[in-house]
Write a sequence for this structure.
């Protein structure tokens, strides 16, 4: 597992931890921006706001599923440290995304999507740490594409900016998961 | 010379026709890579943030039992086929205003054709055959 190679390079790992910490700070900044922009957003109202709420709620639903997916991975017994710790860090990011999205939907007058009682995951195909990482990488890549597709359709540019901030976080998750799998962490110059 | 030119022209026309047909049919293998963009919300065989894709062709939009569709999708009166998928995937929010699929779409016609070809192929995959939908979910 190439992730173990990272363990032989403490400077790299330390840098990654610092990097992850900073990404958390960035998200907090976004959260503040989202919530601070609430009055201006709510004042606009109308069709555009209703559509923005729908987009946010769809993103919220996907984030809640991602939280559940990481929980399945964490409880699978297949992840060893430091991979397990990293998975929990990523799950924490998704919790922060979900929290901000939920609060923003509510402040815009919408009803935030709730977590489902039960999620379906392809658990019968998860037999090893690599399987779990591959599954997580698939979800994270999908999330990058989903946010990329959402950014241009927000009526409000502040929301688009916030979605782009989350996109950046998902892309970092995807790259690190690919690296852990021994794949090129950044396989191309552009995402679609 | 004139005949050769005519033959060359005919060959070019045939080639162009074949390319157009290929574009319409799409490349399922290329479509599989494009489908990766959908995997934050969709799966073939089970519902997620978006509904499952197994059984998509011939299915009425908004008809997977137990999935919470937007009112807009339920009222869209769409039956999914190559043509309706192409229109929807190009710009979901324009095709079905009010859809929960807050996604800008796939502007490239070839990419849409590839994705649709993949979805068509996946529909007959073992994964989907296990999930054959009940007859009542199909459009009549």
């Amino acid at each position: 597992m190439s992730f173990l190679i990272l363990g032989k390079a403490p400077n790299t790992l330390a840098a990654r931890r610092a990097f992850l910490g900073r990404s958390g700070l960035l998200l907090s900044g976004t959260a503040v921006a989202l919530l601070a922009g609430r009055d201006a957003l709510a004042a606009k109202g109308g069709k555009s706001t209703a559509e923005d709420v729908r987009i946010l709620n769809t993103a919220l639903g996907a984030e809640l599923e991602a939280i559940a997916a990481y929980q399945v991975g964490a409880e699978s017994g297949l992840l060893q440290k430091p991979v397990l710790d990293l998975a929990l860090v990523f799950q924490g990011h998704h919790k922060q995304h979900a929290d901000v999205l939920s609060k923003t939907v509510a402040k815009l007058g919408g009803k935030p999507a709730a977590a489902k009682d039960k999620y379906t995951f392809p658990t019968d195909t998860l037999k090893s740490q690599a399987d779990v990482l591959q599954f997580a990488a698939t979800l994270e890549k999908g999330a990058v594409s989903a946010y990329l597709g959402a950014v241009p359709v927000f009526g409000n540019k502040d929301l688009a900016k916030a979605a782009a901030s989350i996109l950046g976080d998902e892309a970092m998750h995807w790259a690190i998961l690919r690296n852990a799998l021994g794949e090129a962490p950044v396989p191309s110059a552009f995402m679609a | 010379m004139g005949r050769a030119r005519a033959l060359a022209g005919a060959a070019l026309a045939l080639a162009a026709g074949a390319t157009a047909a290929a574009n319409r049919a799409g490349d399922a293998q290329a479509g599989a890579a494009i489908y990766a963009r959908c995997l934050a919300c969709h799966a073939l065989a089970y519902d997620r943030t978006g509904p499952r894709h197994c059984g998509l062709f011939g299915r009425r939009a908004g008809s997977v039992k137990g999935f919470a569709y937007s009112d807009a999708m339920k009222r869209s009166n769409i039956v999914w086929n190559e043509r309706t998928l192409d229109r929807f995937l190009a710009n979901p929010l324009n095709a079905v205003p009010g859809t929960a699929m807050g996604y800008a779409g796939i502007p490239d016609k070839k990419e849409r054709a590839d994705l649709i070809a993949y979805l068509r192929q996946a529909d007959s995959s073992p994964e989907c055959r296990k999930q054959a939908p009940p007859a009542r979910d199909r459009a009549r």
User: Anything to note?
Assistant: Chain A has seven helices and no strands. The interface with chain B takes residues 51, 54-59, 61-62, 65, 119-120, 122, 138-139, 141-146, 149-153, 192 of chain A (CB under 8 Å). The domain at 2-180 of chain A is CATH 1.20.1260.10 (Ferritin).
